[in-house]
Amino acid sequence: MNTQSAKKLLTSYLWITMGSLLYALAFNWFYAPNQIALGGITGLGQAIHTYIPFLSVGLFVLLVNIPLFLLGWRFIGGHLLASSLYAMALSSLAMDALNLVFSFPATDPMLAAVCGGALLGLAAGLIFSKGATTGGTDLIARLMKLALPWLSMGKVLLAVDVTALLLVSAAYGSINAALYGLVAQVAYSYVTDTVLYGLDKAKVAYIITQQTDPVVEALTHNLGRGVTLLHGQGAWSGQEKYVLMCAFKQRQIVAVRQMVKELDPDAFLIVCDAHEVLGRGFTRYKKNAL
């Protein structure tokens, strides 16, 4: 392993460490003292233990995670197995250690659900972004993503964990813990998606102008963005014209708008959100990307 690869691996594990510690903090600070259902494999274990007392929650979690990690190793690779085992072990140990050092007091359940879900989503997003999981439903969602690549990780996690929350609610005969848990899961899903995908937001502009060459020159040289010329024709006038298509970073929207309007005040400008842009100047394609 060369120096660059070692540095990249070390940086990856530093982020996974930060995410795992935040994961433990979110659980101990917001979930545990307010009795908010967390869902996931742990939630399923709680529900099943209610009906099958001799099957402990810990044993259930272990039995379910072993085949999940083997599937992860088979379909995603050894890096996911090692990093996920690290994240799962660190977050679990951190939960117990933090609980021994300090006990967080209970707070307003709704506030705890929103803040806890958001902090847990931040932690999960950091862990997922480095190719790891915390095991359980996180790993299930990661494997499901292979079969359903068009779904976001947050949405897959929400579907899996809501199922667990409903089972926990039925097992305990209490709907409140599950409802607060559902609120937390929505916040968790949103923040996870924001961490994984929100930082890569881009825009696409379609520009119809009489000043084609000056606009192209400004976009390519002043902003360093590529421009594609699309052949178009006005439906009413029948006049043939170019439609300029340009993808750019979200922070450049003001500069693009100002530049186009200064060169041609009558230009027709359409700006659309681009969820993902792959290519030079944006994100590189990765086969197993989330």
Automatic annotation (TrEMBL):
<keyword id="KW-1003">Cell membrane</keyword>
<feature type="transmembrane region" description="Helical">
    <location>
        <begin position="178"/>
        <end position="199"/>
    </location>
</feature>
<feature type="transmembrane region" description="Helical">
    <location>
        <begin position="51"/>
        <end position="73"/>
    </location>
</feature>
<protein>
    <submittedName>
        <fullName>YitT family protein</fullName>
    </submittedName>
</protein>
<feature type="transmembrane region" description="Helical">
    <location>
        <begin position="150"/>
        <end position="172"/>
    </location>
</feature>
<dbReference type="InterPro" id="IPR019264">
    <property type="entry name" value="DUF2179"/>
</dbReference>
<keyword id="KW-0472">Membrane</keyword>
<dbReference type="InterPro" id="IPR003740">
    <property type="entry name" value="YitT"/>
</dbReference>
<feature type="domain" description="DUF2179">
    <location>
        <begin position="225"/>
        <end position="279"/>
    </location>
</feature>
<keyword id="KW-1133">Transmembrane helix</keyword>
<dbReference type="Pfam" id="PF02588">
    <property type="entry name" value="YitT_membrane"/>
</dbReference>
<feature type="transmembrane region" description="Helical">
    <location>
        <begin position="12"/>
        <end position="31"/>
    </location>
</feature>
<feature type="transmembrane region" description="Helical">
    <location>
        <begin position="110"/>
        <end position="129"/>
    </location>
</feature>
<dbReference type="Pfam" id="PF10035">
    <property type="entry name" value="DUF2179"/>
</dbReference>
<dbReference type="InterPro" id="IPR015867">
    <property type="entry name" value="N-reg_PII/ATP_PRibTrfase_C"/>
</dbReference>
<keyword id="KW-0812">Transmembrane</keyword>
<dbReference type="InterPro" id="IPR051461">
    <property type="entry name" value="UPF0750_membrane"/>
</dbReference>
<dbReference type="GO" id="GO:0005886">
    <property type="term" value="C:plasma membrane"/>
</dbReference>
